[in-house]
Write a structure and sequence with these properties.
This protein is an alpha+beta fold and 397 residues long. The protein contains 11 helices and 24 strands. The longest helix has 40 residues. The protein folds into 3 domains: 153 residues, Adenine-n6-DNA-methyltransferase TaqI, Chain A, domain 2, CATH 3.90.220.20; 68 residues; 146 residues, Alpha-Beta Complex (Adenine-n6-DNA-methyltransferase TaqI, Chain A, domain 2).
């Protein structure tokens, strides 16, 4: 049987200070940012905010992170995605200073609480439910130490804690291995593209250069008006539903069939059309797979209908996701906090245009890779389902 404890009974926790913009420097000690914690990993290359060594080792010395600290983001996070905003720090990431909206945790007594056990507790529905209730059920998490101190958690024996963490580590390792396999296939596709067509910027094979709009029949975007959401109905997706160059139909909203019909008069996504993200993670494209349902789009997605006698979807999609095209995007992306692409800039993209015969040759190879990716993705989904079920069972009170 597990005893139920409050987090302050077993953990030290601390939120970062509110460092002002006027204190930022170009070098010194890096400040941790909520954007540095993603998919349970720390990536400090995504921000360039520092404070001087004088302030870091003086005024803010008690906010300096230690090797092995458990870090989380605690502001502006969608509740259902919080499990991805948790990570351990390593010596390679140091020196590092906490900043506002980030927190760290340490076990007060390693003979009482195994910190890896707490790491997994933060991923549970129990934690998400408690923290959601404490912040009045908001769709986004914005919390601090005053909320954390009210959280209750099960605390079995130290031996059981270590066994739970070890089991979940193994399950998580299988997930990471399958993700790695998918990533390698993505890298293989990009490598084959370069081998067959060369760098689209330098264009060493001297392919014809055209505007994207010259080879398309429609380039438009989803509705600019926020629709009336329903509990069920027609699926409605946005840029957040394109992840790692694939469309996901999970975590979606719904609209009425009547509203969908009105929206589809201008924007009607169909099998093997291409969707391109216009906002947020801009410039990521994906081919629409064969699905047995209709769906509508928000304005953050661009719909590209190409001339199917002139373009192959696998060639075009790989070209749009290439570093060369992303380099073009970088010249005209607008916005600071949220990046935006405009339709006129997408329409006038300069793209290489090899003969259809060469595109088809590439597509035959890529289709085989895509088939393998689908199998790996299905396996990944099953592994994730098993992990989630195991996680919840492990923390039943």
């Amino acid at each position: 049987m597990s005893q139920i404890v409050s987090i302050p009974d077993v953990l030290f926790f601390q939120e970062g200070p509110g460092v002002r913009k006027s204190q930022f420097t170009n070098k010194g000690v890096k400040l941790l940012n909520v954007g540095n914690i993603n998919n349970n990993k720390i990536n400090l290359s995504t921000t360039e905010k520092y404070i001087s060594e004088e302030e870091a080792y003086g005024k803010y010395s008690h906010f300096l992170v230690d090797d092995g600290d458990l870090l989380i983001s605690c502001s502006g996070i969608v509740v259902n995605n919080f499990h991805n905003k948790i990570s351990f720090i390593t010596e390679n990431d140091l020196p590092l200073c906490l900043n506002t909206s980030t927190m760290r945790f340490k076990s007060l007594d390693e003979n009482k609480l195994y910190i890896n056990f707490f790491y997994y507790f933060l991923m549970t529905t129990s934690f998400k439910k408690q923290i959601g209730q404490l912040i009045t059920g908001s769709a986004q998490l914005n919390f601090g130490p005053s909320h954390i101190q009210k959280i209750k958690m099960p605390l079995p024996t130290l031996q059981n804690q270590k066994q739970v963490a070890k089991t979940l580590d193994k399950a998580n390792e299988l997930i990471e291995l399958r993700k790695e396999s998918i990533t390698k296939l993505d890298e293989l596709s990009k490598s084959i593209f370069i081998d067959m067509f060369g760098d689209p910027i330098s264009n060493p094979l001297k392919w014809k250069i055209v505007k994207l709009e010259d080879l398309t029949t429609k380039i438009t975007d989803g509705t600019h008006k926020t629709p009336i959401y329903k509990d069920s109905g027609i699926i409605f997706i946005s840029a957040k539903n394109i992840k790692k160059e694939r469309i996901t139909f999970s975590d979606v909203k719904y609209i009425s069939e009547e509203e969908h019909i009105q929206l589809s008069k201008r924007c009607n996504p169909e099998y093997q059309d291409i969707l391109l993200t216009k906002s947020g993670s801009t410039g990521m494209s994906s081919i629409i797979p064969k699905v047995d349902f209709e769906f509508s789009l928000f304005e953050s997605l661009c719909l590209i209908k190409y001339d199917r006698t002139k373009m192959n979807p696998f060639f075009l999609n790989n070209l749009l996701n290439s570093e060369a095209t992303k380099f073009q995007y970088s010249k005209f992306i607008k916005g600071v906090a949220i990046k935006h692409l405009h339709l006129k800039d997408i329409r006038t993209l300069n793209i290489i245009y090899p003969p259809m015969k060469e595109q088809q040759k590439f597509a035959k190879i890529i289709e085989k890779i895509e088939e393998q990716k689908i199998l790996y993705t299905q396996e990944l989904e099953k592994l994730q389902e098993n992990f989630d079920a195991l996680l919840q069972r492990s923390f039943q009170e």
